[in-house]
Every structure is written in C-alpha cells, then in structure tokens.
Design a protein that fits this description.
The protein is of the alpha+beta class. It has five helices and six strands; from the N terminus they run ββαββββαααα. The longest helix has 19 residues. The termini are far apart. The relative contact order is 0.18.
Length: about 200
Amino acid sequence: MVEIPLFPLPLVLFPGGRMDLQIFEVRYLDMVKDCMRQDSGFGIVMIVEGEQVLRNSELQLPSVSHYGTYCKIVDFDQRPNGLLLISVEGQTKFVIRDQFEQADRLMKADIEFLASEEAKPVPKIHEHLASLLSTLIEHQSLKDRRFDIDYSEARDVGARLTELLPCPNRYKQRLLEMNDPIARLGEIEKLLERIQWVKGN
C-alpha cells in the first residue's frame, strides 16, 4: 500500500482527464508544495456527504468514495489575488484501504493502485459516441481545456464522456469504478437514452 494525501471534490475525474484547481486553504497549499518538492501527487475523491471547504475548525471532514484517481500537477500559476491555480492530470485509479487525517485537517489514505484498464477499440455500435465526444469538445466553454483524446480507444471515449455529460456524480462514480471500457460505453448509451426520453416528455 501507498500513503497519499486526498483532495475531496464534488466531481469525478478519470485517468487521462485534466482539470484546474484553485488552491487557497493552508492545508492544500502545503500539500501542493510538498507534491511539487517531491514530484509526487495526490488523490482526487468524490465527496459523498459533507462540505469541500472547512469554514471553521468544528466542521467534520466530508465522507468520500472509496475509489478515486491519483493525479500529478502539470502546471501552476500564482494569481495576483494570492490564490494558487494548479492544473492536474489523472494518472491511475486507486482504492482506499485506510483513511485518516493530519493535525492540519488534511485527509490522507493508505491506498492500493488498480491495474490499468485493457486498451480496446471503440466497437462500431458505439462509434457515434466518439462523434458526440468530438462535438462536445468543440463547445466554446471547453476551448481552454487541453484534451489529448484517442477517439478510436474505448477508455478515452468513455472516460471523457463521463466527465462531460450532465449526470449525477454518483452515476459518474459508478462508471469510474467499472474496469471494462466497453461495458462503460454501454452504460453511457443507456444514460443518453434516458436523457433523450426526459427531453421528449
């Protein structure tokens, strides 16, 4: 097992995904400094219940999912207002075996890294999902996001669609915990059918 710091968020990130984080709490500023000094990363885990920001010392730490994604910092920028903006990229999935907190309220965990999903081509029946993803990526709101996507690869298409589609985080978490990229595409098909049915009624 490996000990890593945790960064609870109300979202789900897959390996290969990128996102920007605005850092202002002291515990996370210290965490980022340690990660950059040691060239290490931290785990992003979805909040199940509770608050992301500890607005006072009496608040409990949030409850989080047992599965998350280990991330590395790939870019950073110190803003004029004193906030630190970092860009992270998901590396690999993990499962939490034990969880605890430091004196500064930073969440840490003993985790086990999970094996990478098998690379599989997108089946013909799901090729339209790759086209949908390509269309979503071109949206104006995502112009500043940096995506490196293999549209012929089921892991990439399923992961990026899960991150971008409008569905509950608990559903995205369930797709993260799957280890078959073809089965994940099948679940996304069902989700899109439900979305279309709701829009049509």
